[in-house]
Design goal:
CATH topology of the largest domain: Tetracycline Repressor, domain 2
Number of domains: 2
CATH architecture of the largest domain: Orthogonal Bundle
Largest sheet: none
Shape: globular
CATH class of the largest domain: Mainly Alpha
Structural class: mainly alpha
Low-confidence stretches: none
Order of helices and strands: HHHHHHHHHH
Distance between the termini: 64 Å
Number of strands: 0
Helix content: over 70%
Strand content: under 5%
CATH superfamily of the largest domain: Tetracycline Repressor, domain 2
């Protein structure tokens, strides 16, 4: 099969999406974005191994783009989950956050790497674009959750980053390396925390939501 070079802006955008899709599928198969490299990504996307450089300068930029897309997907998932709903209490908001985060495992994984390395390993202009777009999606989902709930904007503004931070941390714990997985087989008293991502995340996000709703200013009636 002859691979045609993308020439139009739409074709280039589609090729970039193909690379992101390939990176996401490999991350799921390999156990995390830390195992993703550019050569398998370009091969899976059906491109020549050198073609990725026309779309992303480095693996770090590719993964940062994947995280940026994750913010958009999270906001869209929350919008869909809130459609036609109103007056949600703290537990219901926590459920929405937990359900939408657990449905985006690669995004949860990326959140850790964004803070640890990805933002600092790209150009300042690329980091600026990521921040601008991620914060835009963050602000939109905070507004949507506030409008659909009885929680104040102060509570939701504190809850959303707490939920994402918990998801990032718990995802890493629940996806141990092969050596740690073997250790947990040998020492099961340590391993039980590694395989219950969704219920632990739900408990922690719900507890945080309830605690914030009782601590921060209440929404004006």
């Amino acid at each position: 099969m002859t691979i045609q070079r993308a020439r139009s802006s739409d074709a280039k955008a589609q090729r970039a999406e193909d690379l992101l899709d390939a990176a996401e599928s490999l991350a799921l198969e390999l156990g995390g974005v830390r195992h993703v490299t550019l050569a398998p990504v370009t091969e899976r996307a059906g491109l020549h191994r050198t073609a990725v450089r026309r779309y992303f300068e480095s693996k770090e930029e590719l993964l940062l783009e994947l995280a940026e897309r994750g913010w958009k997907q999270w906001r869209e998932s929350i919008d869909l989950a809130l459609e036609g709903r109103a007056g949600l209490d703290a537990r219901a908001v926590a459920d929405v956050l937990t359900d939408t985060l657990t449905a985006l495992p690669v995004f949860c994984d990326c959140l850790t790497h964004v803070a640890l390395s990805l933002e600092g390993d790209v150009s300042i202009e690329r980091a600026r674009r990521f921040k601008r777009n991620a914060f835009s999606e963050h602000d939109a989902l905070v507004a949507a959750l506030t409008d659909a709930s009885v929680l104040s904007v102060e509570v939701v503004t504190a809850l959303v980053p707490a939920a994402s931070a918990l998801a990032a941390s718990m995802w890493q714990v629940s996806h141990p390396s092969p050596s740690l997985a073997e250790l947990y087989v040998q020492e099961p008293q340590w391993g039980h925390v590694a395989y219950d991502f969704e219920p632990r995340l739900r408990l922690l996000v719900e507890s945080t939501a309830i605690g914030l709703s009782e601590t921060l200013p209440r929404r004006a009636e």
